[in-house]
Structure formats: structure tokens, C-alpha cells
Amino acid sequence: MAPTLNASCTAPTPARVRGFTLIELLVAIAAMALMAGLSWRGLDGMVRAQAQLQQRADAVLTLQAGLTQWAADLDAMVQLPLTPTLNWDGRGLRIVRRSTAMGGNGLLVVAWARRNLEGTGLWLRWQSPPVYTRGDLQATWARAAQWAQNPGDDDKKFEVRITALEQWQIFYYRGNAWTNPLSSDNATQVQGADKPPEVEVTLPDGVRLVLTLPSGEAINGLLTRDWVRPVAGGKKS
């Protein structure tokens, strides 16, 4: 006899799966967008901070390189008879120095000056090509002075920007004291046998550089750098 099915035994009804409502989806999307925005702002802030740190580090390295070059120019300075090789006129400092080019001879004339460019004061260095004759040296010496005062386009090709600069001062060490070069050049008159007196310029025992660096720079305020002539002997500060 075939079994009969009990009417009370029915198949189980599957559980109803509940999905997300539209409001819940919108809230989740908004939360994800907020988190993405906050993450982006954090990453952007880190990138900006890293860029600022790198910029300041580059500025410090550039200033250090400039001060190193300043000392190198003075270390390589030469002294010539009846010929000025160091001069400060209140606007620029000119130096006659040896050339360090491999196998190179001749002399270089370098000059340092401050100039306003696009509303910003900058410390600049200028260097001439090597010179080999006294006449070329005199002409290049005058050209360096002209560059410090009012440079032409050709002279600007030989200049290098060092750092932002508000103002600067130069002092010479002579007679156991730091003095203004414009009032203490201590030149010696040399009388020739068949020529008028000429001026023998004596080099100072030391040169003091005082820079006023603008605020907002990696290094700002007063910065002083002293250089002592190697042949002077003794330590001075």
C-alpha cells in the first residue's frame, strides 16, 4: 500500500535575504568619500612638507657652496707689484686670483656684489675668462667694477646667483683691528726712477664678510664669515 503524504508536513520556506537600502548605500559611499578626502589631505600635507624641507636643504647647501667659493677665491688671491688685486668700493668686491683649471695658466678676476632682481636682493658672483697680459688684466678689472655697478647683458652671462640677501658689509683686518676698507686701504707710494709715483696696494691680513639674510629663508639674520690670509700667521677672530 502506497504511503500517503501528511498535509501537515510541508517543505521549509527559505529565509528571506535582506539587502542594503538606498540610504545605507549613500551613507557608506559618503563615509568612504570622507575617508578618501582625509587620506588625500594627509598625503598632500606630507608631500608639501617634504618639498619645503628639500627646498630649505637646497638653500642651505647653496649658501654653504657660496661661502666655500668665497673662501676659495680669497685663498687663491695673488699679490702683484703696483697692481691692485683686492678692492672693495662699497658695492662690490673684486679679487684677482689664480686659475685652477687643469693645465691652465693666466689669472682670473672675480667679483661679488648684491643686486635687486625682480624685487629680491641677491648675492651674486662674477668670474672672467682667464687673462694673460697686464693690459687684459686692467681691462677685466675695470669690467668687473662695471658689472658690480651696472652690468650689461654680456657680463650677466658670467654671473651666478648665490642666495637672497638684504645687505652686506666688508671689513679688513689691519693693525690688529677690523676696519672699513674705504677708510683704511693703507696704500704705499712707490717712487720710480723715471716715472711718476705709483701706488703699491698692501693686502689686509684678514677679510670679514657680514651678510644680512632675509627672514623666511632657511638661514636668516646676520651671518659673519672671517678669512685670514695664510701668510699673515697667527689666528685672528
Strand and helix layout:
Blueprint: H1 22-75, E1 86-88, E2 92-98, E3 107-117, E4 120-127, H2 134-149, H3 153-156, E5 159-164, E6 167-174, E7 177-179, E8 188-190, E9 198-200, E10 206-213, E11 221-228
Antiparallel strand pairs: 1-2, 2-3, 3-4, 4-5, 6-7, 6-10, 8-9, 10-11
Task: Give the N-terminus to C-terminus distance in angstroms.
Answer: 125 Å
The best one-word shape is elongated
Strand order across the largest sheet: 1-2-3-4-5
Helix content: 25-40%
Please, how many helices? 3
Sheet of most strands: 5 strands, antiparallel
Arithmetic mean pLDDT = 81
Short summary of the structure?
With 237 residues, the protein is α+β, with helices and mostly antiparallel strands. Helices cover 31% and strands 29% of the residues. The model is unreliable at 184-198 (pLDDT under 50).
What can you see in these coordinates?
With 237 residues, the chain is α+β, with helices and mostly antiparallel strands. The protein has one domain. Helix content is 31%, strand content 29%. It has 3 helices and 11 strands; from the N terminus they run αββββααβββββββ. It has helices at residues 22-75, 134-149, 153-156, and strands at 86-88, 92-98, 107-117, 120-127, 159-164, 167-174, 177-179, 188-190, 198-200, 206-213, 221-228. It has a 5-stranded antiparallel β-sheet, sandwiched between helices. A hairpin with a 3-residue loop joins strand 1 and strand 2 (92-98). The radius of gyration is 36 Å and the shape is elongated. 18% of the residues are buried. Residues 184-198 have low confidence and may be disordered.
